[in-house]
């Protein structure tokens, strides 16, 4: 089965990890610091906190922004559930704003429709690898004193308006799962433009530990002393994962180039084909294409999905509208809430896209799909 996504591991990656195994630090060591510094440099120089997954990054980000009971978090339904659930588990009410049907990205006008004085965070998702309209979203957030969050699980390595992903919203979360744009095995990161939010993010992911003597409330202990002022969790990335991530970062530009090449190959093959719609790229955005979200029209998505799989091509669907999940449906969220997202979902089919996909593999995908829709 040709997968829809796959990690690209080189001999240099393997050597980087084995070097850590031969060293003194397996976690909380120099590789983690170096990786966080590299992510910061990639993201406009802001503080980066590494962690164990993209989901952990979202949990950390919402906690660092002070999200809690009585707050509202506005987000898109066209995402993996964690973008919404990590706000909900902190006690916030999630308000879903519809998407732009052309791109799958959250629609600022729909955000405006659900914005209230209780809105704490506007969380956009860089669906398929291109950045949302953060200038418009920031303007809306500023109206009510909210913050913007970029769920950049798909877009690490991209940019918009000449600014890198990580410098487009108040807080940015990243995922380094194997199918993402680079991998640490499992892993993620939170990038914070505000230093105090960055400190809170670091402490939350480090069990809440405070190690700065100037902030101690217990002042008569020895040099071993550390204390907890707010609850936290252990979301620390290991040096093993960080070493892999550092090695992967050296190839990020090549990963981006190859993903763009495959995307262009698909676009050329499917442009103008009856029953198919190719992805739409926003003006001013330089995407890091993580998904190729083809649209299958005429109610044939499931049929084409099953027949592609039967032909050995591992297509995927990204994503079921979040509020369809029973955990949200049981809270009263109803189908029909975001009609553009539901229509987009009914048509979306992700084709295989990853750096090691060969031209021959891509041509096999193209030829099979064209035969099925012809």
UniProtKB/TrEMBL annotation:
- Tell me its cofactors: pyridoxal 5'-phosphate
Q: Which family does it belong to?
A: Belongs to the DegT/DnrJ/EryC1 family.
Q: Which gene encodes it?
A: pseC
Organism, as annotated: Kribbella karoonensis
Q: Which InterPro entries does the record match to this protein?
A: DegT/StrS_aminotransferase, PyrdxlP-dep_Trfase, PyrdxlP-dep_Trfase_major, PyrdxlP-dep_Trfase_small
Q: Which UniProt keywords apply?
A: Pyridoxal phosphate
Name used for this protein in its record = UDP-4-amino-4, 6-dideoxy-N-acetyl-beta-L-altrosami ne transaminase
Q: Which CDD domains match?
A: AHBA_syn
Name the domain of life.
Bacteria
Residue ranges of the TM segments: none
């Amino acid at each position: 089965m040709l997968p829809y996504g796959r990690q690209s591991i080189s001999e240099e990656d393997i050597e980087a990890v084995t070097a850590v195994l031969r060293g003194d630090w397996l976690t909380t060591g120099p590789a983690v610091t170096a990786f966080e510094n590299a992510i910061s440099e990639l993201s406009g120089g802001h503080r980066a906190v590494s962690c164990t997954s993209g989901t952990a990054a979202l949990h950390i980000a919402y906690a660092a922004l002070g999200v809690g009971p009585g707050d509202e978090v506005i987000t898109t339904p066209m995402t993996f559930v964690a973008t919404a659930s990590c706000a909900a588990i902190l006690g916030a009410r999630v308000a879903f704003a519809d998407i732009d049907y052309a791109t799958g990205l959250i629609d600022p006008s729909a955000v405006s429709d659900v914005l209230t004085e209780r809105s704490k965070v506007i969380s956009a998702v860089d669906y398929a690898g291109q950045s949302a309209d953060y200038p418009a979203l920031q303007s809306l957030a500023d109206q009510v004193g909210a913050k913007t969050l970029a769920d950049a699980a798909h877009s690490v390595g991209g940019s918009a308006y000449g600014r890198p992903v990580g410098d487009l919203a108040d807080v940015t979360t990243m995922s380094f799962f194997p199918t993402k744009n680079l991998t640490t095995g499992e892993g993620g990161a939170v990038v914070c433009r505000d230093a105090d939010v960055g400190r809170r993010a670091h402490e939350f992911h480090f069990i809440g530990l405070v190690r700065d003597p100037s902030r101690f409330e217990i002042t008569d202990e020895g040099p071993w002393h550390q204390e907890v002022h707010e609850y936290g969790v252990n979301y620390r990335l290991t040096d093993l994962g960080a070493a892999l991530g550092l090695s992967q970062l050296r190839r990020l530009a090549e990963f981006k180039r190859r993903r763009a090449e495959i995307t262009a190959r698909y676009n050329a093959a499917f442009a103008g084909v009856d029953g198919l719609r190719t992805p739409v790229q926003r003006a001013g955005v330089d995407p890091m294409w993580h998904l190729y979200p083809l649209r299958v029209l005429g109610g044939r998505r499931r049929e084409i999905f099953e027949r592609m799989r039967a032909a050995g091509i591992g297509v995927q669907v990204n994503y079921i509208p979040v509020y369809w999940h029973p955990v949200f449906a049981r809270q009263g969220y109803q189908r029909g809430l975001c009609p553009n997202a539901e229509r987009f979902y009914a048509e979306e089919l992700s084709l295989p896209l990853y750096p090691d996909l060969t031209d021959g593999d891509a041509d096999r995908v193209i030829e099979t799909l064209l035969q099925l829709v012809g």
